[in-house]
Amino acid sequence: MTKRIFLAGATGAIGRRLLPLLLNAGYEVTGMTRSQAKAIALRDRTIRMVVADVFDADAVKRALDAARPDVVIHQLTDLSALASPATAIPRNARIRSEGTRNLVNAALMVGARRIIAQSIAWAYAGGTLPHAESDPLDMHAPEPRSITVRGVSALENAVLHSPPLLGTVLRYGQLYGPGTGADAPHGAAPLHVDAAAYAALLAVQHEAYGIYNIAGRDADVVTEKARRELEWHEDMRLPADVMDISV
Length: 247
Ligand SMILES: NC(=O)c1ccc[n+]([C@@H]2O[C@H](COP(=O)([O-])OP(=O)(O)OC[C@H]3O[C@@H](n4cnc5c(N)ncnc54)[C@H](OP(=O)(O)O)[C@@H]3O)[C@@H](O)[C@H]2O)c1
Prior knowledge:
Structural class: alpha/beta
Bound molecules: NADP nicotinamide-adenine-dinucleotide phosphate
Distance between the termini: 31 Å
């Protein structure tokens, strides 16, 4: 049976690489955006799109009700205002807490089986490096980091503890590559955007649950679990002829 997938964040840096990968793998994908114009442009390329703001709980429920997905993938961030961290940090934390809650509630309502969500690999509390997935989050960090970590914790708790939904959290490193604004690896846990997209595809295919660090080798995090259970590695890249869905 072809699995139906609902991709929230289809137009984002990771979503734009993940959507063609999912289609190539044979999944029936519905993407979500707030933008009517982007939805029309993508529908012109035969991609199913719905228009909804994740903070509008009823609109999210209607979108999932129409798509009836087996799997919900959450690749939402609100980082377009990155140039101004004072506004970007609370906005992104809100999408992780309220936005994730709305998606989870809608997924439960329509009987989706699984949810796979984007998190980050740099929210760990201090301690011995590299960090494994079982290490604690930095819940006692000072502001503004505490805002980010609380958002991450809310997202991960909602995804992992909303039975009967089976949850997967992908703790991504710092992105580089097409559409990310960074051409080269940077930060303590660099990650090419294509390898990030492949991790989500592999999580769907491997029926993998729980938390996975996703970053290059020599990062501040241990990634053996993803390499072993998802058969993921950091050199994965989209084929050159893959559909470009930039809008
Ligand atoms: N781990 C990392 O290092 C990491 C992770 C993610 C992003 N980033 C970086 O952050 C920058 C911006 O990321 P981005 O290009 O992905 O853009 P973004 O503005 O963060 O948006 C990401 C996705 O979330 C959707 N979205 C945002 N708010 C929404 C809402 N209220 N309701 C529904 N959908 C919503 C956007 O859809 P629409 O705008 O179409 O509605 C888009 O599909 C890039 O440089 C990227 O590389 C880094």
